[in-house]
Design a protein that fits this description.
MetI-like fold; mainly alpha; 266 residues; 11 helices
Length: 266
């Protein structure tokens, strides 16, 4: 039985990671072909760093992902706080349901809805160049919010209410009690929501496709435009760099978390 369980787990990990390993390996393929491996070369990485359009798209994606995840994390954290302290159960349930709609909706429905909203606003304001970074930022914050709230809410539920009450009894105002007592306890949930929002924003294509403009192109949109022709092998190099970067970030976060737990145990 254990052999079958281990074999199943091995097969799952094999299917998950073989495409990534192949992608990284062929990003160093001098021939620029998936049919043959002619030898190790950094030519595609050199081409990547010489491709201004690809680097601009990457910079746009990072700027959008950082901005939207930070804004969504701030709004989502205080929204989770408001939901946690809401007393009327039926209102709390209704707000929770409405909050989860962007997460439950298909991306294409959210994208079309946001596009129609921005078209209507642009018509009211009589703005010709309304679409761009601003519209994409609003759209990304919108679909990131439910994930942040979902990450932070369990932390609020696990809090000991008496800690905040004790802080207020000792002279803290409600806001001081939140920032000094409650906020440090919910930081892991905030960080999880921030990282999840950053990943979702960096990866998004469908919603971005409906609310973008030719002047502001993210990396997924740039790669999609490449599929109309032959995808450049420099995209393999870019994907390999992104995978390695995310792996390093995850290792650093996990290492910092384990060090923090050991320090707390002492």
């Amino acid at each position: 039985m254990k052999f079958l369980q281990r074999s199943y787990i091995f097969l799952v990990f094999l299917l998950l990671y073989i495409p990534i390993i192949v992608l990284i390996a062929f990003s160093f393929n001098e021939a620029g072909s998936l049919a043959e491996y002619s030898g190790f070369s950094l030519v595609w990485y050199e081409e990547l760093f010489a491709d201004e359009e690809a680097l601009t798209s990457l910079r746009n994606s990072l700027m959008l992902a950082v901005s939207s995840s930070l804004i969504a994390t701030v709004i989502g954290t205080f929204a989770a706080l408001g939901l946690h302290r809401m007393r009327a159960k039926w209102i709390k349930s209704a707000v929770n349901t409405v909050t989860n709609i962007p997460m439950m909706n298909p991306d294409i429905v959210t994208g079309v809805s946001m596009m129609l909203l921005f078209v209507a606003v642009a018509g009211i304001l009589r703005a010709n160049d309304f679409f761009g970074f601003g519209t994409m930022l609003i759209a990304h914050v919108t679909f990131n919010l439910p994930y942040v709230i979902l990450s932070v809410m369990p932390r609020f539920k696990a809090l000991d209410v008496s800690l905040s009450e004790a802080a207020q009894d000792l002279g803290c105002t409600p806001s001081q009690a939140f920032f000094k007592v409650e906020l440090p306890e919910i930081v892991p949930g905030i960080v999880s929501g921030l990282m999840l929002g950053f990943t979702m924003s960096l990866d998004d294509f469908v919603i971005s496709h409906f609310v973008s403009s030719p002047d502001f192109q993210t990396l997924p949109l740039y790669v999609y435009n490449q599929t109309a022709h032959n995808v450049k092998f420099s995209m393999y190099a870019l994907s390999a760099l992104i995978v390695v970067t995310i792996l390093i970030i995850l290792l650093v976060v996990n290492f910092a978390g384990s060090v923090g737990k050991k320090g707390g145990a002492k």
